Amino acid sequence: MSVAVVLMAYGSPDRLEDVPAYYADIRGGRPIPPERLEELVERYRRLGIEERNPLNEITEQMRAALERELGLPVHTGMRHWRPRIADAAEQALAAGARTIVGLVLAPHYSTMSIGTYRRLLDDAVAGRAEVVFVDRWGADPGYVEVVADRLRGATAHVVFTAHSLPERIVAAGDPYRDELLESSRLVAERAGVGDWSFSFQSASPTGEPWLGPDILDHLADLHSRGARDVLVCPIGFVSDHLEIRWDIDTEAQEKARELGMTLRRIEMPNADPAFVGVLKTLVERHVPALR
Ligand code: FEC
Question: Which protein residue's CA is at the shortest distance from atom 32 of ligand 1?
Answer without folding.
Answer: 204
